[in-house]
Amino acid sequence: MDEPLAIKFLKRFITDNAPRPKTEAVPVTRKEKIAVIGGGPAGLTAARDLALRGYKVTVFEELKYAGGMLRWGIPAYRLPRNILQAEIDDITSLGVEIRLNTRVGRDISFKQMEKDFDYFYLATGAHKSQKMRVPGEELGNVFGGVEFLRDFNDNEEKWIKGEKTLGKKVAVIGGGNSAIDAARVALRLGSEVTILYRRLRQDMPAAEEEIKAAEEEGIKIEYLIAPLKIDGKKGKVSSITCQRMTLGDFDSSGRKKPVPVEGSEFTLNVDAIVAAIGQVPDMSFVDQKTGVEINKWDCYTVGKGYKSRTTNPRYFAGGDAETGPDTVIAAIGAGHQAADDIDMAIRTANGEPAYEKPAREKIDVPLVIDEESIEAPQMPMPEMHHDTRKTNFAEVELGFSREDAIKEACRCLRCDASV
Fold first, then answer.
1. Lower CB density within 10 Å: C or N end of the chain?
2. Are residues 154 and 178 in the same domain?
């Protein structure tokens, strides 16, 4: 019993096999109108929660589909589009309106928004790739990680048909989940892929299972390497010059800082480069007249009376645009928090009592367990074989069978943690 219970896999089994409950429109019982700017996980979560409390909520999404990084950053082999769309459809069926292809500040002004709505939730994410800041970064076929994944997800058919190509050899710079996603997409498009990372494997921010999956598929990962410059021919990248690193003292992240090794430069011939070294929010759309403060990290400043309220009491913010790049579950949590804060701010202003969330019914399940040591290893998630999956974009994780799910659930030691 040394391994944790595979809660995520069990939830997946239930979602795959249980009948999907029908959602119906919730009557609008509140006079306050709320605008959510950004249709990613944080924004959609807040919209859902507020709609359930009787508010009229409108989501403004710049792109042609809602979903944020779930739609534009995560490939379909990890998150099938029909699953994501079903979740979004559940939210709109509550009465939430989503206005697609609408960039606030361009297609509709903040001045007009402030006339039409009473409160705002800024959930605009972190969709701008950080620059490597090396010579030659402006050459053709040098992509930011977010931009490459977005372009692929937007034009998947063209990429698969070869109307858009990367070339034979691709270098991916970075060690996070976006770098792994970009590398695995490039591999499926027929390229030879090498990931270049400036630290060691144990320092990579990417999930261990994603790193392992990339290696199984044949992606090469080179450690302690940093880019120095990019050269090109006829306006397109042709090679990247790198430098080997060693690890020095610990930095503010708690990891050892990479230090260049003098005289260790070398060059790789490549046809494309994907720089996935991090993302930052794009705040260029924000009208300064709103009074919403943006800090030195290009994130919203919050915590003014409520956890998610900005320097303008009508504006709340959360998700990656407030914290910087984080997990999907963190964004969902931020959406829940914002809905609570907005609702509480409104009720307080109106002299109303706080909203009471529906109580959860606790089910008593008898615990029968042998006190002796039990040999019950965690059930592995069934996956498509790596030789097959690297040639297509079908879902990699296949889900538990009923038998596997029962075996895994029986490993629970009943710590009574609320999950």
1. C
2. yes
